[in-house]
Amino acid sequence: MMEKNQLSRRNFLERSALIGAAGIAGISALSSCSKNAKSVDYNFPPLLDKAPDGKKLRAGLVGCGNRGTGAALNFLAAGNDLELVALADVFEDKVWDCHGKLGKQQVEVPKGNCFWGFDAYKHLLEVDLDVVILATPPHFRPEHFDAAIQAKKHVFMEKPAAVDPVGARQVIATSQKAENMGLTVVTGTQRRHQRDYLETYRQVASGAIGEITSAKAWWLQSHVWFRTREEEWTDMEYMLRNWNNFCWLCGDHILDTHVHNIDIVNWFMGKQPESAVGFGGRVRRLTGDQYDFFSIDFEFGNGIFSHSMSRQIDGCANSLGELVMGTEGYTNCKNTIFNPDGTIKWQYEYPKNKDGKSTGIVKVSPYVQEHIDLVTAIRTNKPVVEAERTAVSTLTAIMGRTAAYTGQKVTWQDMLNSTERLGPEKYEMGQVEMEFPTPLPGTQHKA
């Protein structure tokens, strides 16, 4: 493996014929007008405080890191008669670390149902399961998702849905299979299950800010983490244990974290953007091949744009959020709608504490709420499939990443036609014949 921080003049993407599921349809556009509020066409979850009782549901976890362990506990907190009965990860130590953490929470997973290795997910799918929780590095999401649906399992899967256009289109194709099979798929875009975001969306879609004219989204934070390579680690083990720093595994931070904000803008806009122009760079990272920052201008058509920026650099001012502007006001998308002059038009009412003051937090954590919604959909036999919309937001982030990496204007059609697939051809521990140059804008071709 060659890990390079110097700039490369190799083309980052190659132009070729369409591979994978084509013709991704945009989410139905919402046309809002405050003077004539319209009915809101959106599949709102029921927002119960606890999933209804019903058939016992047995779940298996694929990906035993911190997020996977957390997602498993969130699932178990969603209602009664929910069990975690199997674990899978590429690394044995990760499996037993997760097993130990769960044990401290009185969650006992049978040791015979604990698997490790690149094919561990296949063994997990042979266990008697109803639900599969997918929380590996996102590179593996399309393959694992397809296998789970083929095995006729309901799925909770973390975002992003993929790291490249081929993977995103595969997820969309699998999503359509899930719908045809009557399965439920909920994704880790927890803002869409968060009560304040949902009610703010309802207000905006009903016309509270008039016609949407522009938006911006941002996720500015410190560099999250990296692993120093240990002497005995092979190339593959090093990358997998340091996955958050390699584009082929996580998609860069514009996908791994900022996709949340991009998803919100797509949601409020009612569609994905038509094109992207942007830039980014790398000045502080110590490992991997990713950028430190992105600044992307997404064009939605009809003169409507969204500015999207993300950054992971220590020692800088940090914040995150979204803002959508309209002809009659604007909103932070989370809990407040403002008049054009900045005065408050509407605010979400949070639960109050014993002193009668607002708690400022929703009644149920959105990380648990999304699992309540998953279990509710299964037990009420009202399937919900969120994978396609998350894949669309994932592909939007990939479009922005591609624009920054190449320095070119990148269109949605480019994403539908792109054959870019990141990562090695086969997965095995050992040395990996891959190079990791930092993308150099202006010397590369768009997809």
UniProtKB/TrEMBL annotation:
Signal peptide: none
Residue ranges of every copy of the Gfo/Idh/MocA-like oxidoreductase N-terminal domain listed in the record: 58-183
Gene Ontology molecular function: nucleotide binding
Domain GFO/IDH/MocA-like oxidoreductase, chain residue ranges per copy: 201-311
Domain of life (superkingdom): Bacteria
SUPFAM superfamilies per record: Glyceraldehyde-3-phosphate dehydrogenase-like, C-terminal domain, NAD(P)-binding Rossmann-fold domains
Protein name: Gfo/Idh/MocA family oxidoreductase
Source species taxonomy: Bacteria, Pseudomonadati, Bacteroidota, Bacteroidia, Marinilabiliales
